[in-house]
Amino acid sequence: MRDASSAASAETSTPRSAYRTTVLVRFAHCDPAGIVFFPRYMEMFNNLVEDWCREELRLSFAEMHLTHALGLSTVHLEVDFAAPSILGDTLSATLAVRALGRSSVHLSIALCGADGGDRVRGRMILVLVDGRSKRARLLPDDLRARMAVFQAES
Predict the structure, then answer these.
(1) What whole-number distance in Å separates Cα of residue 52 and Cα of residue 55?
(2) What is the Cα–Cα distance from 67 to 88, expressed in whole angstroms?
(3) Cα-Cα-Cα-Cα dihedral of 28, 29, 33, 39, to 10°?
(4) Residue 143 lies in a domain
(5) 72: domain range?
(6) Does pTM top 0.70 for this prediction?
(7) Order of strands across the sheet that contains 90-100
(8) What pLDDT, in 10s, does the model give residues 75-96?
């Protein structure tokens, strides 16, 4: 699901072509204090990438891994935690492509609360990896083109 609203883009400084969805904060995400345990945000990030691949790039992780013997490995991750999320929150999730390398995709991810305030922001670099050799592979032209639709304007 893509949001083409330029007004929303101007307000949030995310590109018009960002992938957007929602994430429900579940019991399994929370620690005994009832707030999201920080490593669970990384799982949310990965789930967001997996959903983006399936819904928008037309390449599910099942197809990527089982049919093509490929993977998208996280090679760099930066995260800033702005405010806690609690059990039952519905977070707005935004994923945008910051840059495309020969075998890598650089992503920005934001999870925001119902008030629009940041809960967590992250930057990830993923590399397309051959599942057999465990080495980086060039992004295929068709996949690169589908990813480029989500690239932030510089």
Answers:
(1) 5
(2) 36
(3) 130
(4) yes
(5) 6-148
(6) yes
(7) 19-24, 90-100, 104-112, 118-130, 70-81
(8) 999 999 999 999 999 999 999 9
